[in-house]
Amino acid sequence: MSLKGINAYKKGSLKQDVANADPHKLTLMLYQGALDRIAYAKGAMGRNDYVQKSEYITRASSILIHLRDTLDLDVGGEISENLFALYNYMINLLTEAHVQNNQNALDEVSSLLTPIRDAWLEIPAEAKEEAYRMQREKKQAL
Length: 142
Prior knowledge:
This protein has about 140 residues and is an all-alpha fold. Helix content is about 90%, strand content about 0%. The protein has helices spanning about 5-20, 25-45, 50-70, 75-100, 105-120, 125-140. The longest helix is centred in the middle third of the chain and has 28 residues, at about 75-100. The mean pLDDT is about 85. It comes from Alteromonas profundi.
């Protein structure tokens, strides 16, 4: 099978995963996608492939911007505010990594994002269900 066919299969599989995912799984997929793009950018940087480096850093930044911009600061309080600031910091580090070809900045973003992803994995099922129930009720009240 050609690489083009494999990539088409992966895209179709990803679309299927997204369509069937709950909000918790979607957020987890975003975290993992950002970490993957950072790793790919680091590899491209090591090969002096600046086009690929730029593409992967841009994609990782876009994911972090989305995560930052979808925080509910009213409901999340201090935790949301801290995450907002941390996402901003990571976005700035990615910009630095891109402009200065700084692999250490990529490593720092990965080291900050990995524990968040890991903590997200540890959220108990009951807590996820309660959060979704509250979110649905809030939407219905509007």
